[in-house]
Amino acid sequence: MSPPPPPSERTADVPPPSPFADLGKKFDSALARGLGNITRRALGPHQTAVVRIGFAFTWLFYLVREFPHRHELYGPDSPWGFDLAEQMISGSGAFSVLMWSDGRLWFEFVYLMAVLAAVGLLLGWRTRVMSVLFMIGVLSLQNRSIFMGDGGDNVIKLMAMYLVLLRCGQVWSLDARRKARRAPEPGPDPTGIALWAVAGLALAVTTGGGLLDGWVWQLCLWGLWLVFGAWWVVERHWPGEPRLVFDVLANLVHNMGLLIVMAQVCLIYATAGWYKIQGTRWQDGTAVYYPMNLDYFTPFPELSQALTGNGILVMIMTYGTVFIQVAFPFALLNRKVKNVLLAVMIAEHIGIAVLMGLPFFSLAMIAMDIVFLPTAFLLWLGYRTRRATAPLSGFAGRRGRRGEPDPEGPEGVSPAQPTAGGTLPAAAVPRADTVTGSGAAPPGVTAASEPAHATTTTTTAGSAAGTTGPPAGLPAQSRTGDATAERADASDRPGPDT
Amino acid sequence: MEPPEKPEEPTGGDDPGTGVRGAAAGPALPAAREAAEAAAPAHPDEGGVATGAPPQDAGPGGAGAVPPGDRPAGAPRPVGGTDERSPNPDPLTTENFVFARLGWPARITIALTVGLVTVLGLWHIAMGFLYVAPANTLSKEYASVIRDGYSNPEFEQNWKLFAPNPLQSDIAVEARAEFEDETGSVRTTDWISLTAMDIEGIRYNLLPSHTAHNTLRRGWDSYTNTLDEDGRPVGARGERATVYVHRIALLRLSTIMDIEPVNRLQLRSAVTPLATPPWDDRTVNTETIHEEQDWRTVLPRDLPRGSLAGDADLPPPNPAREAGSTDDTDPTDGNGAPADGESAAGDAGSVGEESGSPDSGRTTSGTVEAQEGES
After folding, report:
1. How far is Cα B138 from Cα B146, in angstroms, rounded to an integer?
2. Does pLDDT of A405 surpass 50?
3. Which chain A residue shows the shortest CA-CA distance from B163?
4. What is the pLDDT, as a whole number, of residue B184?
5. What integer pLDDT is reported at residue B335 of this predicted model?
6. How many angstroms separate the CA of residue B186 from the nearest CA in chain A?
7. CA B48 to CA A456: how far, in whole Å?
8. Are both B57 and B206 inside the same structural domain?
């Protein structure tokens, strides 16, 4: 932050400027800037969106894949039976709606709701509500059968809880799209009201029936419900300061949630790395050889044997794993190093997915890693994705075209693009991205003419968090994008070099 | 590392600082801002002014382009400028609000929330750190707060992935059952490898199921962790793990053979150390070592969903009964049938008899319990 003292001229008597000069002032301004950042915007809109998508997809994929095994895993007929689970949960106090009944129908219902919540979260439909349902689904299933999970499930569980704190539907979500299409003034939102009413009823019934016990969960769920309600009222009938305060509080919670997510990733890698250092097999460079020759972790034994046949290769993999895991938290201090490590990490997880037969673990880890991806990369990825999928469906195509300015107003831009336009200073990437949104329009034109709208749009989009969608203010998404890059990437700034 | 964590305390002092950008909104603004931003890289100074961004904001906004030195120069002007430019119908947008111009209730609410969120967030991170860190001065002193007080059960985590040392043996679980065939004579199956069924599900499968990867492997882990020196499960937790692995065994055996009515069940582990890598000078005996568990008389609750039919309460392990069956190392003796009948009654009896025991067991093993979910 602090600029290096100017190279001193070293003329005879002029003392070099003190590096501590103005330190207080600099601190104050840094503090003010920081406070401005965390109150005025929900940082990392793209990072949080992609984390949301990543975990929703992982869990959804898992639930679908295990659909044939769902009874054995979480159902009343599981070897980890309802009786065992009940006994254990009565001791641990873990939350699981599956413990409310051992009925088969209830189980099927919960499993289905977990799937639907994952779909909803993936698409970003009523994102905040879906994130709550998603969390309930994840906790209910995982806490029901603790022996069925591995590290991947553990990450999903933690992130499912953290996602509730995040405004993770700011971009790349149906919410963002809806916001972008809607008039500046929020309508009555019958769907939201219906959802809220149903949720309230469910809460009342379960609390009244003594099912929802434990004051922590009662507080959390009822609190969320009240906040949803208050948000609706404030957004429609109490514009001005109250609405602003709500928005600021949501930003604060989001930003802290984002920090927690990032800290969690660091904790995971640091723990994994530092404990490995203590192991003799990791020290002598053979550790990787063993899991890759264990029956449980060799779906493709020939492949694994081929890879572990060379001692030097094994040692490189062994040491490399430890290096990147230990180094990860520190690498965040430097954008380039971080990006390289991130790429290596993701590649390693892809390798683990295949070689060790841990696809869902790896997916969860990757979903977690991507919170650190640079904004420029995410924008590019979004662009490529949209372009790749556009021909496949009219839906996607429409979405792509919506990038063009909407006659109704500045709202008609696709969420991703504005950031691009506004954020990235004078780089090729932003132009490309701007174009992205606008589909067919010639690059130069769009880039030049649209950003103004773009800014507005994203903003609005950004505030879409399910029913809690904050007031349609005009947060300059462009700057958010930038902040994103800086914060979420830990000193990263978006740039084409990523 | 992150900005959000620092700025909380001196909220008050910040007011004047943050409160620079009063004007915003209005349809005119986005265009203006965009223009400014487009311009920013090229002409940092104008960028700052045009946006109406305060010096502080210029940082994040035009981050790359604005040299720090510009700030003092550009600082004072923007505010007035912006105000004049867009007479403001709604100055209250989140993106541009001025803290100092908010009413007292709003200011107090925001300030308190900044403090509260910061404290809670940092608390959570600290708890997470102490939870995963090795036992240390702090975490030993405040273990109850860190573990049961806060983290368990929902924030439980364990990231010792293949650490400190990876597992270096294949551990297979095998089972055999004693049952009555059609003629009424008691027979014992061969040892069946339950793990082989897992491996079958994993081999050449890009998406192995958790049922193949975790169900038995982690169940067996938990089971062996609860055994005492004599190889008997300890406490309510041990009993649960025992029931669990036996249910798995029964389920899997019944998929490949008809063992009804089953009298007793025996499990054993087959541990095969992996050969050391060819380039490693250490040598390891790779002979498989079998470790047999006691024969277990199959109770209704060992059958899948068995206990749902009746009382869901599990009796604690009954040492006498287990010991009794342990002695019958010869599975072909004629005790199977009577034992089964007896045990059903004994089961019902023991529920009442020792019902207090699981509770006490549960409380004493409370802390162990918390770790049950890990691995």
Report:
1. 10
2. no
3. A276
4. 83
5. 30
6. 26
7. 19
8. no
Q: Is residue B121 part of a domain?
A: no
DSSP 8-state symbol, A5: P
Is residue B227, in this structure, part of any structural domain at all?
A: yes
Structure tokens at A362: 């790896």
Cβ-defined contact of A474 to B280 (cutoff 8 Å):
no
Yes or no, beta carbons of A482 and B60 under 8 Å apart: yes
Please state, for a pLDDT cut of 70, what percent of chain A lies above it.
Answer: 76
Structural domain of B267: 169-346
Residues of chain B found within 8 Å of residue A471, distances taken between Cβ atoms: 94
Q: Please check whether residues B72 and B217 belong to one and the same domain.
A: no
pLDDT of residue B92: 65
Cα–Cα distance list, A430 to A48, A335, B62, B176 (Å): 20, 19, 14, 66
Q: Do A146 and B160 touch (CB under 8 A)?
A: no
Neighbours of B165 (CB within 10 A): 17
Among partner residues B61, B301, B363, which is closest to A482 by beta-carbon distance? B61
Nearest alpha-carbon partner for B258 in B210, B203, B187, B316: B187
CA B151 to chain centre: 10
0.90 surpassed by complex ipTM: no
- Both tokens of A196, joined, read 């809220």
Say if CB A304 and CB A298 are below 8 A apart.
yes
CB nearest to A279's CB, from B56, B118, B163? B163
Show the beta-strand stretches assigned E in A403-480.
none
Q: Is A104 on the interface with B (CB under 8 A)?
A: no
Q: Is residue B338 part of a domain?
A: yes
- Asked whether the beta carbons of A332 and A490 are under 8 A apart, the reply is yes
**What does the pLDDT average to over B205-216?**
94
Indicate yes or no: CB of A158 within 8 angstroms of CB of B157. yes
Residue that finishes a domain, picked among B97, B127, B155 = B97
Give the count of domains, chain B. 2
Q: Is residue B77 part of a domain?
A: yes
Q: Are residues B194 and B334 in the same domain?
A: yes
For chain B, what's the residue count?
375
Best residue in A147, A307, A468 to probe B by mutation, most B CBs within 10 Å? A147
| Nearest residue, CB atoms, A455 vs list B33, B206, B280 | B33
Per-residue pLDDT of B287-316, as tens digits, reads: 999 999 989 998 877 776 543 333 333 343
Identify whether residues B75 and B189 lie together within a single domain. no
